[in-house]
Each structure stands twice: as C-alpha cells, then as structure tokens.
Amino acid sequence: METLNHHEVIVLLLQLSVLLIFARIFGEISRMLKQPAIIGEILAGVVLGPSVFGKLFPDIFSLVFKSSQNSFFALDGISSIGIILLLFVAGMELELSLIVKNGKATSIISFFGVLFPFFIGFAGAWYFYDTLISQDMSHRLTFSLFFGTAISIPALSIIAKILLDLNLLKSKAGSIILSVAMVDDLIGWILFSVILSMMAGAASVFDLPTIVITVLAFIALMLTLGRAIIDKIIPIIKKYISGSSGVVAFSIMLCLLGSLFTQYIGVHSIFGAFIIGIAVGNAEHFTHESKEIIHQFTTSFFAPLFFVMIGLKIDFIENFNIVLVLFVMIFSFLTKIMGAWFGSFYVAKLPKYEALAVSFGVNARGIMAIFLGIIGLETGLINQEMFVALVLMMVVTSFTSGSLLSSVVKKIRSLSFKDLLSPQAVFFSNAGTKEDLIKEMCAKAAAMYNIGEKDLYYSVMQRESLISTGLQNHLAVPHAKMNITSPLALIAISKTGVEFDSLDQLPAKLIILLVTPMGDNNLQLNLLAEIAKLFGDSSKISELLKIDNNEQLTIKIKNI
Amino acid sequence: MINTPFNKIGLALTFSPSMKYNLKTALHLKELFNSELCIIHSSQNIKEDKKRFESILNELNVDLSSIKLLSKPGDPAKVILEIAEKEKIDLLIAGALEKENLLKQYIGSVSRKLMNEAKCSVLILRKSEFDYQNFKKFCVVVNYTSEYENALVTAYRFAELEKAKIFSLIRDLWIPGLSLTNFDDGSINSAESAKKELINDETDKIKIFIKELNIGNSVPIRIECFYEKNSINLSSYVKQHNADVLVISKQTKKSSIFNRLIVDEFKNIYDDLPSNLLIIRK
C-alpha cells in the first residue's frame, strides 16, 4: 500500500494549517462586519489562491499548493468528508415538528416560494442557454433544471441569524419564515437529487427511473420508520456508553452509511448525509448536546477548510462575467421574493407586513447554493463563470436580506409596553385613596378606549382583593383582563403618594393600569414582566417623579 | 379558591401485583380530598370478583359502606371510560404497566387509552417497590394557557392538603432555529447569551404568573427552566429529584392512526413514566 512520504506529509500539514489559519481569520473579520463567516472563508481562499497570492508570489504558491500531487489528494479527501458532515449538520437543523406546527401557511408559501423561482429560473436558463452558457445544447435540460433549483434553495442558517439579530426568532412571522425555509430546503434537495440522477445516468449501474424511485423511497423511509428506529436505538446506546461519545459516533456512522448508499446508487454522497441528518436530528432522544458536539467540530475545522478550498480552486477575477452575474442576480431576487409574496399575502393571507417579512426573509441564499454549485462544477454541468456568479448571488442576497427585513421589523414585533404609551394616557392625580385612584383611572380608560367603566373597575378591584399589586419603590401595577382585542395602559402620577399596601410599605406614586385581552395570559405576563424589568431600578422611578409634564414623561419612559 | 380538588374518585382496578398499592393510594386520596370513591372493574365473573375484592378490602380494614363497587363485563378500557363518565368521576386512578413494548405502544394499552381518552383528570400510578407513600414532592409543568392555570391551582391545592415539601414548576423552552444561528461560524456566544436571557426572562414571567394565581403561600415553590424540546430534561429532572408525582395538563384526544403520527410533546413521559403522572383536565 502506498502512503504519503515524509515530504508529502509535511506539505499536507503545512497546507492544512495555512488554510485553516487564513480561513478562521477571514471568517472572524467577516463576522465582525456582521456577515456570515463563510463569505470571509471563501474570500480567504480567493486571497490564498490563484486569483491573488498565486499572481503575486507564483513561486511560493506552487511550492505550498502545487509541489505535491499526493498531498493535494489527501487534502481533497479531507474536504470531501467535510462536505458530507456539513450536509449532515444542515439536515439535523431541519425541524419537522416546526413544519407540522405551521403546517398550512408553510406549505402554501413554500409551494410558491420554491415553484415560482424554480419554473421562472428554469425557463430563463432554457431560453438564454445558448447565448449565456454554451453552444453545446446536450446539457440544456439538466442545466435549466439545475439553475431553477439553485436559485430556489434558501439559506437556513443565515435566515435564522438575521431573525435572531432582529429579535424575531420567537415571533410568529419568524417561525413561519423558518419553517418555510426548511421546507424549501427539503424540496430543493429532492429536486436536486433528481437532477443528479439524470446526470449520473450513464455512470451509474442503475437506470434513471430506478434511481429516482430508490431516492424517493429512501427519503420517505428515513423520515418515518428510520427516524423511529434511530429513536429506539439511541437510548440503548446511552445506557451502555456514558457521555455523548456513543451517540455522536453512532450518528456519524449512520451519516457515512447514508452517503455511501446514495453515492452507490448514483446520486451524490452528500444527499444521503443530508437525509440521515434530518432523521437523526428529529429523533427525540437525540439531545442537543450531541448535536452541539457534531456542530462544533464540523464548523470549526471542516467547514472553514472546505470553504477556503473553494476559493483556492477557482480564479474569481478571471471568471467574473458581468452579464452572467446580472442574469443570476435578477432571476434569483425577483423570482424568490415574488413567489413568496404571492404565496404568503394572496394565498396564505398573512398580514401585509408579515408577508413582506417572509418574502424578504427567505430571499437569503447561502451554503446550499454553494454546495449545489460545487457539485455542478465537479460534474461539469456548470463552468467556473457560472459558479462565481452563484457565489456572488449568495453574498448579495444574504447581505440584503437583513436590511430588507429590518425595514419591516417594527411592524411585526410583538407588542411591548412602550408601544402602548401615549401622552394622553399619562396624567397627574390628586386622589387620596387607592380606591379613588383606581376609579379615576378606570374612568379615563373607559372614556379613551370605549370599554365599560364599571366592569373594568370591578375586575381591577377583584384582582386587588387577591393580593395587592403594589410593588416596590413607589410603583404599583393594578391590572385586569377584559373582553378587548388589544391591550391598553394608563399611567397616573401621584405626587403625594397613595397607600397601596405595597411590599415595602411605601406609598405608590407611579401607578400603571394595564388592561389586556381575556384569555391571552402570555401577553399579560410579558407586559407585566417588561414593566417589572423597566422600573426595577429605584433611581429611575425617582427621576421620573421629578417631571411635571405628561409629554416629557412619556418620552422619558420610552427612552428607559 | 377550590377547597377540594376532586369530589369523586374512580379507581380502575385489576387483580395485579400492584393492586394493593393502588388501592391504598386511592383510599388515602379519598381521605385527603374528603371525596367519594368508586372502584371500577371490568370482569367476566362479577360475583366471584366482588367476593375477592371484599376480602382484600376487609384485610385492609376498610369500611365497605363508604366505597362503591362497579363492575361490568367487556373491554377493560371501554368499560372504565363508560362508567367513569356515567358516574361523573373527576379523578380516575389507574396503575401503569411497567414498561411497554413497541407493539403495545402502537395498539395502545389500557392505561394509555385512559390517559388519552378519559374526559376527567387521570392519575397513573407507577408500580412501586415500596409500600404506599404520600405525595411529598410535586413536579408541575408550566404553561400560560387557561387549562394550565386550572391545573396549577388544582395541583397546588392537592400539595397543600398533602402538606407537600416542595412544589417544583418546570418549563421547557425551545426556540426553533436558535442553534442554526451558529451553523456557519462555530461561534456560540450569541446563541448562548440569547438562551441565558431567555431563561432569565422566563423565570421572571413564571414568578409573576404564580403571583397572579395567588399560589405559593404554604408549600414552597421552586422554578426550573430548561432549554430543550420534547421534555427529555423534564423526565430526567423528575427522576433525579425523586418526585412523587408529575402534573401536566392535556386535553382529551381520541386515539386514531392520524394522532399517532403527530409526536406528542410528552411522548417520552408516557413511554417511560419517571414518577406517578397526574393529568389534569377541566
């Protein structure tokens, strides 16, 4: 058996460390600039590769990267394992339960969000094939299918990150965006597996229909029965092997077997990894500690290595074709946003701003488009120019998605206490007792919001009779639930203070009346928790009490 | 404030090794809640079974006049559900099978049918090696729905009557997609801090919630928030703390093939009961 010789091992280790160092540094810089790390990692490859470093220092470049063919093979092998693991991790992130929960809206939006870009992309590629891609028409159908798929798969991780940054992850719109992206992801990969089988046709031992049927059966089986069986095996492993190592090894072994299977039948190995990822990630006994471990070593070693290799292999400057780039950009932007908008606003009937948010959200494209590109490149389906255009499309869509989403984010975030405040709802009171003060507030609220004064007073007092709502530091929050559609808040300031039976025995001076819709405990608790947090600090309250003007007071509270 | 959480208790009884334990528990709860007790039994040979029951009850020194014995031939789960509904029972007690195999889980055992289909609250007793014990440690799942409001108040009243030592409130938190955020760079700081903040905020919310419900004055309350889905931590927490009863709230659901496909959030709990399980329904 042949092994790497002394020199080749040294070259391999040198390559690995140089690549990893550069990838991580560029990745971190990219993160500091609030961009996904993979943009920096690919850029690191561009800088190290023939585009920049290779041009400036051709001697050193060929010494490190070209002097040994064997070590480069080894490097390529490592990066192949990397892409398999990356897809495995990507599959684990697909939460079937979330998709089921948002069922109806998700399926409608995903349907349009994928099919619209897919068909338009397909038609565009078909129509412009000879002018833009190649004169050789034999790959026209496969390429058009490929292009349609490449522009329809969204970037889950980027979308999730944008949602987290915008504090939308917990909101309804956020959950719909995520589940739509997940379904799109799955559909995109199924489409892609079909394309791959079409391309594999000649090379595989099976004919096309057999491959397609086998792949679809594999998916269906893994997501149902496979998942259930994995779920039964994991507890057994946990029983005999302590810690997460047993489960981690078991799931990686499954991942490799899945890849082996799909590679054997003629669809790319990463597809199997992805499907097994879904099955393992959705097994209930697979805890997120195990997931985190696989995540960590994949994303800190294999992922950067893989992405830096992309930049290394391709000359980005030479292969930059402005017409092709514009073609890809226009098609991917318009089709995805329009498709998702149509599905979410007209068919799923989401409110306007949520529909907009969903459309902008799913527009981010990322790693998946790059994986597709890599495979297309490997199999000779696309050329390097097309690949460069796809990478640029990914960078631009993920970059713009965040800013587009933040333009609508204010309209869809769940209500906060500050949103309820207006100068009209703030007043100064001379009431001498708790009852009088609450009566006065109820009368004002009734006049402002058209609710029954007596009912409101009764509900508030009934709540007070349980246990007083007087908190600390002169703050009291009497509240009630009523038959209303949106919550309301009133603030009364009592300069002299009213005896409120507070925890610290101090009279209440800042009194907030909070009325929330019946049956929405969650909203009431959120608002109460927010109030408690806002005024937790006694100095804030004493500062507020110095103000004599209701408009200033409102502004001051909104700025806490 | 409810004075007694349950007015009429039904005990589904079979001749099994844990029969005496189940019977003692039911008798204890009858005393505790000052309620009526019916023993429900599906039997082919009613006369003989009745004699056997009576001799066991005599052995335990139970006043027979205070207990109603109801028997009917037929499918056990069906008979129990039917009688429970007819008698307007509000707490149904049944023993659990120790461990169920895969086939049983799919077809559905008697206790599982009762859990899912009974219209009233259900207490499933796990087989215990010990003799009967009081319910001293409560673990209660928290949610902010009105069903859970009722469940919390009911369970707390139960704990008060039992003079329990601890009443743990447990909430599972899970933001789908949070772990995705560190997918492409391996940095977990932002996700970790979001998680921590989430847990702190949630703990504050639960504190306000229990204040709104006006519970927590007699039995001490502990609040635990976990970041995990599918109640895996819940189960291990209950086991670790040797809780005597786990309380959840769940609506009646008809078992059908379709319902089996949807993963129940408490599936782990049903599959391997970490303690006795009390399902509260209005």
- Please tally the β strands of chain A and state the result: 5
- Quick one: biggest sheet of chain B? 10 strands, mixed
Count of runs of 4 or more consecutive helical residues of chain A: 24
Radius of gyration of chain B: 20 Å
Distance between the first and last residues' Cα of chain A = 71 Å
- The average pLDDT value of chain A, as a whole number, equals 83
Say how many strands of chain B there are: 10
How are the secondary structure elements laid out?
The complex is a heterodimer of chains A (560) and B (282).
Chain A: H1 6-32, H2 37-48, H3 53-56, H4 58-66, H5 69-92, H6 96-101, H7 103-133, H8 140-150, H9 156-165, H10 172-200, H11 208-240, H12 245-265, H13 269-281, H14 288-313, H15 322-347, H16 352-361, H17 367-378, H18 384-412, H19 417-420, E1 426-429, H20 434-449, H21 453-466, E2 475-476, E3 479-482, E4 488-498, E5 508-517, H22 521-534, H23 538-545, H24 550-558
Parallel strand pairs in A: 1-4, 2-5, 3-5
Antiparallel strand pairs in A: 4-5
Helix pairs in contact in A: 1-2, 1-5, 1-14, 2-14, 5-13, 5-14, 7-8, 7-10, 7-15, 8-10, 9-10, 9-18, 10-11, 10-16, 11-12, 11-13, 12-13, 12-14, 15-16, 15-18, 16-18, 17-18, 20-21
Chain B: E1 8-12, H1 19-33, E2 36-42, H2 46-59, E3 67-72, H3 76-86, E4 91-95, H4 102-107, H5 110-117, E5 121-125, E6 137-141, H6 146-162, E7 166-173, H7 189-213, E8 221-227, H8 232-240, E9 245-249, H9 257-261, H10 267-271, E10 276-280
Parallel strand pairs in B: 1-2, 1-4, 2-3, 4-5, 6-7, 6-9, 7-8, 9-10
Antiparallel strand pairs in B: 5-10
Helix pairs in contact in B: 3-5
